[in-house]
Amino acid sequence: MGAVGNAVAVREQVDRVVTWLESAGDDYGRVLPSHLDQQHWLRLATGVLRKDQRLAEVAVKNPDSFKHALLECARLGHEPGTDHFALVTYGNEIVGIEQYQGEIDRMYRAGAVVAVVCEIVREHDTFTWTPGEAPKHWADWFAPIETRGPMVGVYAYAMLRNGGHSKVVVMGAEEVAKHRDVARTDAIWKKWPEAMWKKTAIHELRKWVPVSASYRAEHLRALAEMEAVTPTAPTVVRVEQVYADTTTGEIVGTEEEN
After folding, report:
1. b (16+ CB within 10 A) / e for 195-224
2. Among 123, 109, 88, residue whose Cα is nearest residue 215
3. What are the distances in angstroms from CA 13 to CA 16, 56, 91, 119?
4. Burial class of residue 191, CB neighbours in 10 A (0-12, 13-18, 19+)
C-alpha cells in the first residue's frame, strides 16, 4: 500500500474513533460540569484528534488511552487540547496532562480564591520571605533574562476572599529538580522550563487551596442555611398613649411607648 493508501486507511480509522466519541457524548456529558457545553466540548475533542496526526495514530492503536485521557479532561472541567489540558503521546499511549493554567482555573471556579500569584525568582532578583507572610519580590521585569540571571526558585500563593492568603509555596532549584526527575514530560521540561517550574509550584499549592466545584456548592449551601436560621430583627411598634381629662374629656397629653 502506497503513502496515499496509508493516509486514507489512517483517516478511515480516525473516523471510526470520532464516530465512537460522538456516540459516547452523553457519557462525557454526565461528567462535564455545567459551565461546559457538551457539543462544543466534543467538537474540540474531535478537532484535536484530526489536527494532530501523531495523536490520531496513537488513538487508533490505543483508543482506550485516548478515551481515558478525555474522561479525565471532562472530570476536571477543561477543554481538551488547550493550555488548560494537554493530550500528550508517550509511545503507544495518550496521556492527559492538566496544565498549571488549568489548576489555577479550578481554584477560581471553586470560589474561595480571588487571585493566584506565581513567579519565577532569578539569581539577581531580590527576594525575601518570612513563613506565614506573603513574599516580597523585586526584579527588573523588563530586563533581558541574561541580566536577571538563571532561575533559582519559584513561589506561589492564593489571595482568598476573606482578605487573607493561602499557604505560600516556596521551592528552590533543587526541589524543583526532584519533581522534574520523576516526571514523564522530559521533553516539555526542556522546551518550556519556566512553565514547568510554575506548574510544579502551582501543583503543590493545589494541596492548600480548594479546587473542587463541591466546595462552592457546600459554601452556597452553608450560606443558605445560615440565612434560613438567622432571626429577623424584631419589629418595633410605637403605641401612642393618650391622656384625657376625665371630667371634660379634653386631651391633655400623649406619650409613645415602645
Report:
1. bbbbbbbbebbbeebbbebebeeeeeeeee
2. 109
3. 5, 9, 18, 44
4. exposed
> What is the rounded CA–CA span in Å between residue 47 and residue 155?
35
3-state SS assignment for residue 218: helix
Residues with Cβ < 8 Å from 105, sequence gap 6 or more? 77, 78, 84
CA gap 156, 219 in Å, rounded: 24
Domain locations in the chain? 3-97, 101-208
pLDDT of residue 185: 74
* 8 Å CB contact between 48 and 81: yes
The C-alpha cell that represents 150 in the structure block: 538563571
pLDDT along the chain (258 residues), means of 10: 61 80 82 90 90 88 91 94 91 91 92 94 97 95 95 97 94 96 83 93 93 54 48 49 49 50
Q: How many residues belong to the chain?
A: 258
CB 166 within 8 A of CB 206: no
